[in-house]
Amino acid sequence: MSPRGGSPMGRVVSGPSATQRERRDAGPATTKGRQRRTEILAAARRVFEERGFVETRVADIVAAAQVAQGTFYTYFDSKDAVFAEVAQSVIDDMLAGLHAPRRPGAGPRQRVRDGLQRFIDAFRPNAVIIGLIEQVGTFTPEMRRLRLALRESFVAMSARGIVRMQTEGHADPDVDPLMTAEVLGAMVDQTCYVWFSLGKEFDATEVLDSLSLVWSRAIGLPEDGETPAGEPGDAAT
């Protein structure tokens, strides 16, 4: 049985009219329309975070956004559609947060730590929606693809970082960058899920210290300022 009836992702009381579908497909034509759409998305996110996906109804989103149900259908054709946009927005924001210029003068272990800190900082405020994406992904291929896209982006960035450190002579050249990034990425992802989504309490500094230590040792990094075995010069240069 589908949750709350209707489609696999939810139930709506009534669908959009033909005119509403035309307006929705064309997108907001005015600044006010774009603002109203943004407000509905923000309200939808709040409701999903408070009630969860299954228990949220279009009526709840409409009430939180303080708009008529017809206004909702001008911009979205269902609860499924508005959740998909909320989820995509969260993933986009997280991916943007993972990109940052390298700190000048940072050694390889500090660069690892900085990257892990960015992931934690990006995951923390979005943990509820990430958990819902995983939940909805159990019966919706689109959400599975979206969740996997976030993970694959982090893995790809990490693999490039490992290759760069190997090229610089810091990391173990025998380490497989992609598979190592997959395994270490799973460690970081699961730690953040247990911490922020399941609510297990951790000391933030201890978590970051431990993740950084395991990651650095796994790819064979020396301590910052030390010379890698068999390599001349300063490892942090």
Here the CATH topology of the largest domain equals: Tetracycline Repressor, domain 2
At the fourth level of CATH, the homologous superfamily of the largest domain is Tetracycline Repressor, domain 2
Low-confidence stretches: 1-14, 228-237
Assign an overall shape. Answer: elongated
Q: Main beta sheet: strand number and arrangement?
A: none
Distance between the termini: 61 Å
Summed up, the domain count is 2
State the helix count.
Answer: 10
Number of strands: 0
Strand content: under 5%
Structural class: mainly alpha
Name of the top-level CATH class of the largest domain: Mainly Alpha
Keywords: DNA-binding, Transcription, Transcription regulation
Protein name: TetR/AcrR family transcriptional regulator
DNA-binding region: 57-76
GO molecular function, one term: transcription cis-regulatory region binding
Overall description:
The protein has 237 residues and is mainly α. The chain has 2 domains: 60 residues, Arc Repressor Mutant, subunit A; 136 residues, Tetracycline Repressor, domain 2. 65% of the residues lie in helices and 0% in strands. The longest helix is centred in the middle third of the chain and has 27 residues. The protein is elongated and about 60 Å long. 29% of the residues are buried.
Distinctive features:
2 domains, Arc Repressor Mutant, subunit A, transcription regulation, 237 residues, Tetracycline Repressor, domain 2, mainly alpha, disordered N terminus, single chain
